[in-house]
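Why run this: before we spend reagent on co-expression, it is cheaper to look at a predicted model of the complex and decide which construct boundaries make sense. The entries below are exactly what would go into the expression plan.
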Amino acid sequence: MISAGKDINEQQAELKRLAEAWSAALEKSVAELAVISGTTEDEFLAIGGRLQDFYQRGVGISELASSMVGEVAGEHVTAAMGGLDDMLDQMGRYVDRAQGEIEESAQTLREILSLLSQVGDPLSGFKKVNKVLRMLGISTKIESARLGQSAAGFDTLASDVGELSVQVNDKAAFIIKRKDDLARAIAQTLSGVLEAGAKQHDKVLEVLGRTRTGLQALTEINSRCSSSAATISAVSDEVSRSIGDVVMSMQAHDIVRQQIEHVEESLEELKQGLSDGSAGADAAAIICELQVAQLRHASEELDAAVRTIIESLREVARKQSGLSTQTSGLAGIADQAGGGFFTDMERDISVASDALMESSRVNQGLCAAMATVAETVGEIATFVGDIERIGEEIKLIALNAQIKSAYTGDEGAALGVLAEAIQRLSIDAITHTGAVSDTLQGIISVTDRLSAGVNAEASNLESEVQVMVDKLSALVQSLRRVNDTLKHSLGSMDDGVSHLSTEIEQVIAGITVHQKVARVLEVSIRELSAIAADARIIAPAGSTGNLDQLAQRYTMQSERRIHESMSGQASERRPPTQSAPAPAPVTDDDLGGNVELF
Amino acid sequence: MAKVIMTADDSASVRQMVTFTLKQGGYEVVEAVDGKDALQKLAGTKVDMLITDLNMPNLDGIGLIKGARALPSCKFIPIVMLTTESQESKKQEGKAAGATGWIVKPFKPEQLMAVVKKVLG
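The model came back. Tokens follow.
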């Protein structure tokens, strides 16, 4: 340290002593700076080598995202949407028609039930006919026995009437039983049709609602995908900008290296000057102060550049990761486990297929029920015909009895009365059978109408259902293919993004060049600051010495600004450590402030 | 066929970034470590454009431009200086030697591409 208040000789002696110490310190600094400027490029080259790889992989991820979005907005899904739209229309029409048919069938079955209940009265009339016929038969037998030979043949007549009355009774009982069975069967069918119809109706409506929601979601996804090309493009642009920032910051090595080399040269010159006496304390002070400012600037520039590289690389990873997440959302895939949009839609479509097939089965069941009604009614009609024929036979027997009683004379008057009664009963029986026949005819007519309608509809619906199921199967396969492609692409994308992020972090973790450079520069800055402080005691502040020679070697505007700031030559001083302004953005007609075309 | 651009710079990291940028743009790139290396390569390789640093060992950018312009194959190709130097006097020196343009480092990739597209047409 130089003491104040010494005479010139003492000061010169002390300066000489200090100059030797300064020279040693300068030599050490120059050597350290030379090492640091010559050995740090490999780390930058290593980062640059990976940059090309990162960029290409980023482009690949963006292309994959575009491809996935294109797939969702593309032909497969658009065709699936059209198919779904048609399917919803068809299902809507089907549900309306099915509901109408169910109501019509139910009404017809109720009508048959009502007609069957009307058969009850004339059928109960047969019981009365049978009872009276049996009584008349017995009376005829008694009267025939009383008259003896003169009433021969009436006994046989009574037996015939009795036998026919038994037949009427049996057939009427059978008809009543079949009528009751049929009524029960119709009631069950009615209940079954209504229940099945309601169930099917609800199920189809539920599926329709869900499918409409699915279609709406698909439409929204499709719409988002149509506009997401711009989003992906924007992300790609942002990634390109981050890569651009890395490219720009990577050049800091060359810039800082030159600045440090210029410092080395200045310090070398100062050392030489101190050695040969051409440089004094004033030169040592200002040159060291100036080089301290240059080194601080270099250190800060490199630090800022490396931090920009690190942040920009992280931004590339973040953007790609965000793109992956965004694309996953756009594509409508929730996860790899299958719980996603397409899986839900596939399940709904399967439910719709089942509901449609069930509806076809209900119609077939209705058809079978109508066939049973027709068969049973036909059977009943046969028995009614039998009763009608029996009535005709009784009528003939009664007529014969009347004729015979007339031949018998007054003694046969009673038998004549019985014969008339039997004839009236036969007419009653014929009347009852006529009433039953008319009602049955009505049932047959209604049954035939319904049966024909149901048969035709069942046949139509079955083929319509088959067409819909086929279309749905094709749709499911189409969507499954899209889903599989998207899952595969998303898996590749996730892997790509994951590996890219990991490798970027590995590269970032290995970046230490700015810290190494900063440590070395800090040592030099301390050494030079100490020299400047000592020299300023001999040559107080304000003395700048001749710095023109130093300024000759500068190549960068930032170096000149620092120099001007320190030497007081700058008309408008700027902070010495302020970074050079970044190039202005490039436009079509403006290439930037750092570009000049001659 | 891709156009060929030579980058001459004594800084490997700058050459790397120039090459990276130009290759992204679809150009083929030939690298030279200084002016002398560049001139030797220019004699045997046809290039469509030259991008050169100013301060290089063995032969600097001005010397390279002069040498290149003397070659028939390089007489009319665009030559752009890419340097930390921003002094007007140096620019004029470059222009006089035959430079087509001047870019002060650091450059942005899109900036370099814009210049390349402009001068290559």
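DSSP finds eleven helices and one strand in chain A. The beta strands of chain A are 595-597. Bring this page to Monday's planning discussion.
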